[in-house]
Amino acid sequence: MLTKFETKSNRVKGLSFHSKRPWILASLHSGVIQLWDYRMGTLIDRFEEHDGPVRGVHFHKSQPLFVSGGLESASLLLFDHSINYQLFSPFISYSALECVC
């Protein structure tokens, strides 16, 4: 199955497939995260909390959560996609990320 999704951002930086639902998260260079239903080809929701490019996204395996990482301020954000709500936004510096990796 090949499906094309249109967006106004010039670059998609990351993708994540949901483990049970026909959903895909797309993190965009414009700072937006889009939640798509890939079977229906429809945009379910948008998350616009990042100030700059969103480098990656990842669904939680069993909870209605996903995490995203942005370039500006090295931000990590945690979202509950069932209520379209940002839960947590810790500040992490690049040096701290280097220590973890």
From TrEMBL:
- Keyword Repeat attributed: yes
InterPro entries named in the record: Coatomer_complex_subunit (IPR050844), WD40/YVTN_repeat-like_dom_sf (IPR015943), WD40_repeat_dom_sf (IPR036322), WD40_rpt (IPR001680)
Query: Which keywords describe this protein according to UniProt?
Result: Repeat, WD repeat
Q: What PANTHER family does UniProt report for this protein, alphabetically?
A: COATOMER, COATOMER SUBUNIT ALPHA
Protein's recorded name: Coatomer alpha subunit
This protein's species is: Ilex paraguariensis
